Structures are given as structure tokens and as C-alpha cells.
UniProtKB/TrEMBL annotation:
The lineage of its organism: Bacteria, Pseudomonadati, Pseudomonadota, Alphaproteobacteria, Rhodobacterales. InterPro entries: Glutathione-S-Trfase_C-like (IPR010987), Glutathione-S-Trfase_C_sf (IPR036282), Glutathione_S-Trfase_N (IPR004045), Thioredoxin-like_sf (IPR036249). Gene3D superfamilies: 1.20.1050.10, Glutaredoxin (3.40.30.10). Residues 83-244 form the GST C-terminal domain. It comes from the Bacteria. PROSITE patterns: GST_CTER, GST_NTER. Residues 15-96 form the GST N-terminal domain. Pfam families: GST_C_2, GST_N_3. This is Glutathione S-transferase. CDD domains: GST_C_family.
Length: 269
């Protein structure tokens, strides 16, 4: 979604760059990487998703869908991460990447589902009272329904379909890289790389089988050497969380229920 009119009248009076974001939000990671690439100064407003701060009336007056990130520049408000990175780093908008940006945008729903299934179940479950309050306070019906589905347990078919679509997206990147290019858009680092870096990082946390692809792992190692990946993503990860996810992934693998156990990866669907 492009620029929107803020419901919070205070946004229009802000000067400079302001980002409302969460440390482990992949869309927030995109924007922080883009900001790091530009070297621009910005004001950080951390939204604690664990405390359901995105369900507050104050934050939903900034982002009407109650999601992160939201970005304001001199009073102009943007709420879609792909639009935000284009606004933040227009010099990285090279030709021929529009389809990759659209694909990255579409991939977010599956990334969210797989993250919640294969990583975020390692975190303590919300109390019934907290879950009920979120359902009452958050006005995004899609998100509240997703939270109910997660608590009830995602249907295996839904998980498998998300894995299959994610794998198909990675094969699209693999095909693009198969001509020997250094980056997704060619020989120049671009918004397409920024859009996909957090997705591969997230899937690596759940031990996605990247050995399936000949060129994608080398691209990822290349882009992770950029300072922007460190300062925009790695430095924001909560201490201990990667280790928590690694232990949970090992537990799921031992139980035969990790991401590689789904029918798509076993040749069954």
C-alpha cells in the first residue's frame, strides 16, 4: 500500500524519518536493512509484539491494520514494507526486479505461517486472558483469525501448501541466479535483495533444506556479508532467541515433525 493518510494527527507534524518496527518482524528487517544501506538517520519506535503493543488503540491509529512496520518521513506515512523500502532507498530500485518484489510481498503470508509453526511455538504460549484481550482489542480480523488458527493448530494441508509455495519462490530466485549474476537483479545490489534477505534468514533458522538449490545459498552468504544485514537484522535479534529456535528445531527434527517432514519435501505432495 502506498502513502496513506494517518489517523493519528501527530504523524503529520513529525520531521525526519520515523520507523515503528519489531526486532523479529521480517518486514521490519527489510526496512532496517534499507535504512542501513542509505546511512540515513532515523528515529526508532519499537513495538513489542510479545506484549501485544500492536493491538493498542494508539498504534492502530498509526497503522490501521495493526501490523509492523509503519514508516513516516516528514509527516508522510507508509505501511507496506515493499513500498517503504522503495521510499527509503530509491537508488536501489533497478530495472527488472518488479516481479521479485511482488513475489516477496506475496510470500509474507506463508513466511508468517511457517514462522509461527516451526519457530514461534518455542516461545511460551499466551495466557487465556492475554489471548482473549488480543482478540478484543485488535481490529484486524485477518490477524485475529490467524491467531485463533495458530492456537488451535494449523491443518497439515495448510502447512504443506505454505512450504510448497515458499519452495517455488526460492526456485524462482534460483533460476534468476543461474546465469551467474551476483545479485537478484544483476550485478548491482537492489531492493530485490533487501526484500528477500530476511526471508532466507528466517527459513535458515528453521533449518530449511537449502541444499536443494545450486546458487541460492551462495547469494545469501554474499548478501549477509553486507554491513546492512548485520546492523539492520542481526543486531536486532533478541539475545537467546536464535538458540531457542535451534533447540526447538532439533526437537521437532527428532520427533519427525520439522519443516523437512512435510509431504512436499518427501515427494508426497
Amino acid at each position: 500500500m502506498p502513502q496513506i493518510t494517518p489517523q493519528d494527527p501527530g504523524i503529520a507534524g513529525l520531521s525526519g524519518r520515523h520507523l515503528w518496527h519489531a526486532p523479529m518482524s521480517s518486514c521490519s528487517q527489510r526496512v532496517r536493512i534499507a535504512l542501513a544501506e542509505t546511512g540515513a538517520d532515523w528515529h526508532s519506535h519499537v513495538i513489542n509484539l510479545g506484549r501485544d503493543e500492536h493491538a493498542s488503540a494508539a498504534y492502530q491509529a498509526i497503522h490501521p491494520q495493526g501490523l509492523v512496520p509503519a514508516y513516516a518521513e516528514d509527516g508522510r506515512l507508509f505501511i507496506d514494507s515493499v513500498d517503504i523500502i522503495a521510499e527509503v532507498a530509491p537508488d536501489l530500485a533497478t530495472d527488472g526486479i518488479e516481479d521479485l518484489l511482488s513475489l516477496a510481498d506475496a510470500a509474507q503470508a506463508d513466511l508468517k505461517l511457517l514462522s509461527h509453526e516451526f519457530l514461534f511455538r518455542a516461545r511460551p504460549a499466551p495466557t487465556p486472558e492475554k489471548a482473549e484481550a488480543f482478540q478484543k482489542d485488535h481490529r484486524n480480523a485477518t490477524l485475529t483469525r490467524f491467531k485463533r488458527d495458530w492456537a488451535a493448530g494449523f491443518a497439515p494441508e495448510r502447512i504443506n501448501a505454505a512450504v510448497a509455495r515458499t519452495d517455488a519462490g526460492f526456485w524462482t530466485l534460483e533460476e534468476r541466479l543461474s546465469d551467474g549474476r551476483s545479485f537478484l537483479g544483476g550485478e548491482t545490489f537492489s531492493l530485490a535483495d533487501i526484500a528477500w534477505m530476511p526471508n532466507l534468514h528466517r527459513m535458515r533458522l528453521m533449518d530449511w533444506p537449502f541444499g536443494r538449490y545450486a546458487h541460492l545459498p551462495a547469494w545469501f552468504e554474499r548478501v549477509t556479508r553486507r554491513e546492512s544485514f548485520t546492523s539492520g537484522l542481526m543486531d536486532w535479534q533478541p539475545e537467546g532467541e536464535p538458540a531457542l529456535f535451534a533447540a526447538y528445531t532439533a526437537e521437532r527434527r527428532a520427533a519427525g515433525s520439522d519443516v523437512t517432514s512435510v509431504p512436499h519435501f518427501r515427494g508426497l505432495g
